[in-house]
Task: structure prediction
Amino acid sequence: MIVKIIALAIQLNAILILSTSAQLIVDGKSEYTIYSSPAATETERYAAQELQQYLHEISGVQLPITQEPQPKTIYVGFQGAPKALSNGLTPTEFGKEEYIIREQNGALLIAGGEPRGTLYGTIGFLQDHLGCRWYSKDVITTPKQTTISIKGLNDRQAPAFEYREPWYREAYDTEFALHNRLNPSGVPLPMSKGGSFIMYPFVHTFNNLVPIEQYHEENPEYFALVDGVRTDKHFGGQLCLTNPDVLRIATETVMQWIKDHPEADVFSIDQNDGFGFCECEPCAAIDKSEGSQSGTVLHFVNQIADVVAKKHPDIQLQTLAYVYSEVPPKTMKPRPNVTIRMCHYDYCNAHAIGQCPDHQRFVTRLEGWSAITDSITIWDYYTDFRHYLIPYPNFESMINHPRFYAERNCTGLFAQGSNVRQQGGGEFSALRAWVFAQLMWNPHQDGWALVHEFVDAVYGPSAPYIRDYIALAHNAVKGEENLFRIFTDPTTMKFLTPEFIHASEALFIKAEAAAQNNPDLLKRVELAHLPIHYARLYFYTVGGTSYLSKEEMPKVLDSFMRITAEHKIKQLAERGGPTVIADFTQKVKEAPEFVTDWWIVGPFGNKDRIGFDHVYLPEQRFEPDRFFEGIDYELISWRPYKNERTGYIDFAALIQPNEEAVAYAYRRFDLEEAAEIEIGLGSNDGFKLWLNGNIILSKKTSRVAEPNQELITLPMRKGPNEVLIKIEQLGGGWGFYFTKR
Ligand SMILES: [Zn+2]
Ligand SMILES: [Zn+2]
Result:
């Protein structure tokens, strides 16, 4: 069921001067008709119907749609409009989505370019001048008005970006996309409703151009030479871009695409995902002289572009500046018919470009590309791809980036948001879909005002608590030290403290209480609450009992499973953690007991990894009062430590210097009877484990620690037992998990 929330009082800026000559509706009555020319396109006819339907909802008046102009007429489309009204303007002077809304002598023109201008003008009239909002599939507002003036209207608009696609499930609802003037390639709008901006194929197309399964066996030289071997990887494997046969096959394929897909706005010649560029001599020579792998990419794409330009001068191609090709080339320039799809990949997401120095590398690269082309479209990233459901306070990026890109004349924005588009569920994904849609059309709006407008309209009586949560989260990530990126482990997100989680939980409990009498609202509030449930459960799996106690866990897990099922959320991550719900809930249910109180000492030297086998004094016996000689003759000694936050003993945070080092952890277990104790160990990086002075297990490895990477049985005796662990640091994280199974 569609719930329409009616805002009873709404302030409208545009229609203040009332005059009898240009009153569309007076006291619930109207003399106007809607004119739709016999020559109108299907989209323009649809625009006239939209206008009729929503004017009826707003005012209760049904204006007839006619093909006979009357003195008091709304002309939908340029066809048939009097010259005085159209002021000499013609559709050809308008961009594909550009429109004008103009009143003259009581007649109104709503018209624009082909194919979507007139339709978007109608939506612009309803939204900007009559206050309609399409916040989501379920929350639409049509403010009631019994008198509507159109006097003096003169509003010409075009979107800031020709391509606008936020990657959220909510944004792919056709009615939502249409009414928020998005033109997604992922789920295109039908041509009868104006169509979309179509990329063919969508992205990562090297394998579409020269399929590895078709050519690899006979012609391995078509594919990238990586570490001396021609790659046979389907994805992540790239092409040899200087091979003339590869160019020939790819060019033929592109020419065929152009023939087969007249609906496409742009054709993608994109490297596959990941690394794996070609290192053969001719490829390497170009990349070396251009100072970037974008050299071979552009060398290749430009040659195809030249062939295409001869036969199809209006066709545009695009190629990625991504991972290894993000740096612009030194001397080459993209051809005029080549768009660069630049990726803002793996930078700080807590702060927007301009708010912290982490983005400077990207800004420099974007400036470099801007110097050699005026056709740049942006692919930006707005979620944690390891944990789609984790609280992710990055509204500053959402709010500021569209304006930043528009000011640099970028032509499109793809905002890859929380969760795959089929299922939704990332934090505030409906809010993000709507705010992005607004800012992609006009990025000069006040983004925080849009956020608050959405929260108030969609969460009603629960809105104050949701606003407080948003403020709490965003205040918690101010400051450069709170940076997080798009592949982030929640244990490294500094703002996710137990205090933050408990304060957020309290706000959502109040928000849910305020929604008790409205089942639809309660569902929306519960979905907003989901990231806090997810965070608590995630921390529980790594020993974070201060986030969620054993007693509370079943209740939170039940809520989590119910909400994800109700909202058809199935996938939790792209990679790097449990990606499906069942694996995650299993992990929660089987979460072991973590041992988090240890004596620790370090660092001892590990230059050239000699520390791994060197017998330092702590290996001989546990002497809590003794001083040892650490790195750089530093005097160090045992100290007791207990992690209150999670089960992870984080040497990287506890011990300095945190490089080329080993450190020890010691603990006593007192048993009343001898027993075989099952334990789990996870380490970053290699480790040695002793029980009562006897080595139990030694493993030289380099890895990220996860609970229970090693399952070990410790034969403990009656009385005191001594466990000693040595962990080496090879770079990055450094620490261990110790569990009792
Ligand atoms: Zn090559
Ligand atoms: Zn930052």
In short: The CA atoms of residues 454 and 631 lie 56 Å apart. The chain has four domains: 3-158, 198-339, 469-589, 593-740. Residues 1-20 have pLDDT under 50 and may be disordered. Residues 469-589 form one domain.
